[in-house]
Amino acid sequence: MTDGSDTTDDASTDAEPLVRVRNLEKYFWENDSLFDRLFGEGKTAVKAVDGISFDIRRGETLGLVGESGCGKSTTGETMLRLQEPTGGRVEFEGENIYDLDGADLQAFRREAQVVFQDPFSSLDPRMTVGDIITQPLEIHGVGTAAEREERARELLGHVGLSADQLDRYPHEFSGGQRQRVGIARALALEPEFIVLDEPTSALDVSVQAQVLNLLDDLQEEFDLTYLLISHDLSVINHVCDRVAVMYLGELVEVGPAADLFAEPKHPYTEALLESVPRASTDERDRERQTISGDVPSPRNPPSGCSFRTRCPVVIRPPGLDVPRSAYREIVQYRTLLENGRLDPESRWEQLDDPDRTNTRAFVDGLYDELFTERFDGDDDAVVTESFEALADGDVEEAIELLRSRYESVCEVVNPELVDEPHPSACLRDDQPGSVRTAVDEWEGASTAVDATGSTGGADVDVAAPDGGTADADR
Amino acid sequence: MTRNGPILRVEGLETRFFTEEGQVNAVHGVDMEIDDGEVFGVVGESGSGKSVTALSLLGLLESPGRVTGGEIWYRSAELADSVAEETPTAVDGDYVNLLGLPDRVRRTLRGTHFSMIFQDPMSSFNPSLTVGEQIAEAVEAQQRARSNPRSVASRTQGYGLSQYLMSFVSSSRKYVSEESRDRAVELLEMVGIPDPVLRAEEYPHEYSGGMLQRAMVAQALAGEPNVLIADEPTTALDVTIQAQVLDLLDEIQAETGMTILIITHNLGVVARMCDRVGVMYAGEIVERGALADVFDSPVHPYTQGLLGSVPDLGGSSGRLQPIAGNVPSLLDHEMPDRCYFADRCPKAMEACLRKPPELPVDGAAGHTAKCYLAEEPFDESTALPDGYFEGGSTDAADPADASGAAEVASDGGESE
Amino acid sequence: MSGRILSDRVRRSLKREFSRSLMAKIGLFLVVLMVTMATFAPFLAPHDPTQQGLDESNLPPAGVTQTSEEFRMVDGERTTVTVEREGSLEHPLGTDALGRDLFSRVLFGARTSLMVGLFGTLFAVGTGVSVGLTAGYYGGRTDDVLMRFADIMLAFPALVLAIALVGLLGPLTILIPDPFVQLGLVTGMPANFVFPITLTIVVGVVNWVWFARIARGEALSIRQQEYVKAARSLGASDWTILRQHILPNSLTPIIVLATIQVAAIILLESSLSFLGFSGTSLSWGFDIAQGRQYLGTSWWIASMPGLAIVAAVVGINLLGDWLRDALDPGLEGEHGGGM
Known about the structure:
B: eight-stranded mixed beta sheet, 15 helices, 13 strands, C: mainly alpha, two-stranded antiparallel sheet, 9% strand
């Protein structure tokens, strides 16, 4: 929203950022009730936010974008200390907010506000608009009752509602108007920082535009700093100075909005951008690179890079001579196996072969179903062997066979964000030293095992993914 | 694309809801023609009547809603034959007026001639049956219809009391045949569900949202319908999954040549999928035509406003141009006899105080708009003064945006 | 509390349901009747309900004539004589074995039932709602401990628990002076009303769990509402949030439940009085117990208070149904968009 052009990229020359998030973690525990404890069921961690770090500079709008369940709203709430984190720190004006208590915490509560998504549930149906807007003033003991009401009138004016609506109840307002009331409440204490949690996603497009314009005006008028949480890339693009992209509790890319939207670095960001249907007439003929599959469960996230199960450009093992499209098919086949989604029993039942003698038919059936083309040489042998293992009902063996030959570095090493203006957490991109070392170690180990004699490192072809691989999702 | 005229011709459709607050005119004289094998989009904001239109087409309205007027002509020679004797007035050549058919006949058309997919796949499946069973059930309903297309009774057999009781006695009883099960697996495979054999045995809660939406498409395809109505098919889905489902609908349309009616609020989805589009506002189609005509040269200020409100992905282009105010009340006694958009319209003229008819737009066949601007350019001299419709409205202006004053002013209209 | 308990919408909905439903009208009529009876019992009663008159014992209700054969000792011999007793308006519902006027007893019995019902429910609401809101709002261990305790309470059969408690506390009562009698407005009526404290506490203890459960459920869902998160982000204390947001928004189902619980509590009170635990003799349940042994000959002694219980319970339940129907659908009035 601010022009952002002269915010220099070099972090060291910047003024102190308003908010600094470091390794923030929020885990939820499942099976953690009294009974589960008594009966000894192990509790599972759901890593809603898994160690993220970023800064929010004064006066800017940082966009936090991701699909549902990626942890973006949890991040927002934890940053406001509406939830306690399981690890990490959030510094607001240099102080860790999780260390605050008493008067210091109340002071922080004045400075940081939130606007929620749902204009219906964000306002108490039994309070008048006046009560809702004066509530923050009352809590902090600001002014007399008359002064508070005066302030509420003024605030209603700021958000484009009329002052004589103070006595009305929320249900008398439309969704857009309620959102304005929510914004007025957030402004009441003259905060520095506002978390906007999907502020427009419950609104119709025309009303959404009104609210976005209002937020823009208010930021200018009151020097506000925003964290805008949204799943809608076009809103993010329209409003934000910088953008952080979240996937499965981790940040995969952070950068200035203009750069990130023009040249996304992480394959996930790229896929997100590709997936949004544009409201223009050439949309039907646009070349699309959409990605297949679903977001994995946060209860059981993939090892290494969390995006690798859907990544169209996952890094192939060194020395492997398989086209990318075929490699994708192998990855999908492995994912099916590992998730228990390929059941040899039901396959056999389908074959109408009660004695299970015709292994050939079993193998051919799977081969045709899972792969567009047959492989040559060693690859053909390994794949066939894995099918045969399946025919014997030995899923573990099949998985192991495939893993030893086709394991990607992306499964082993978790990429991180480097400290630069536009980093991405992808092994094909710049990585911090520790990650690079891990990659080298893995390569050393795997080439030793493979002994294929290949000299090159992992096959990091940053070239655009070849057309046929990514769009089909079968 | 048109071979024998449109497959669906809606004329003057009126749907009313009779509520305690009064009569709500949810759909108000909607005309549309949908050609065989095309993808037609109906786009509008919440409360514009787009979903009610879809439900009216299928006869799925629930009390207090009722279709009170209009005709829905559906082209099917086979159907025309079979109902000609019973209800001759509802037949015109190959066309059948669906609203003239008895309910029991209309019911048999669902799934076999028309199918619908809904926004929320979770609530569209029975949580206590496997997905495979539910699709197989749809397959069987279709087969019953096929076995004797002329007899209406044959289509409803199997829904008798005994089956109903049996399903209570043993809910786990496998009451779908092996063949239908196989067909269900085939359908699941067709909609791109990996390992369909195993998946067919799973319950809806074991599916992700995107997968379940695919399963719903499979179920809708079970009866090989001629027309598929998709009501906000991707609204509940994440953008990467939305792209997958749209790709799927696209493929299926290309493969089967099915006619698809997409109801959505998302202009991007319309642009991605549709050949022609109708823009709905306050229960009316205010502008319609080929996608390119409507999107590139919109005539109705509402269409223009809608397109101007969408933030663009390709480079931030300054301020958005929102439409003032909110979708108006559809209560009968609050609907003035004028253009319903006039109170939010930046180009409202004196002429707009009379209800505009559907007017053709120059230069493009089939492009029409319910707006006088289709015929004559905006005439500043007859423009209505700002605040003409405000009456007792009490809203203050948006302080930071002078031009926004009128926008917000009518914001309070709904709240009375 | 800054909100109104009943919004316009709820009020409209109440009116609409009332005009629509005959049952609601019957319920309201019965409840109003009962409250009137209880309040103005000293005015309405033709006799002192405790006044005995052996020559008037076992009189049938007005309009009923009862003939019975009785053994009499005539001249030292047992002979059977036919006695004919005719009810009169003097004792509209007849008299009991001690000749006390049943109509007056029913009127005064309504006081006991209603007072115990009302205060027992208030006790249950107070305890249950405090526990439930605390458990639901704080969740976690607090919730586990409080609600497990509530579950244990629920596992005891109500009557067994009640009897155990009565045994523990003993039948405490307090005497409340009757204002009408004190002011000299009526004479010949009991000067004090016996309020059974133990009974009230017992019925409250037996019933609070229901309120705890419903309040916990409401608190659980309301605490997820964004306006509660907003209040927390503003620095509001837990107490403020409970008082300002959670309690007002969970009231509607609690009110409905409370109404229906009054009936359940009246039933329980009658059962306990029937068993003789009440500590007052002016109670419907007590009268039924008294009349039980005369069921064969003087059926009205047990039936009249029994009918009063039925009328009260049915009336209150109908009223509760009306409230539930009226408050349930439009509860929040939150169907803003669309049609």
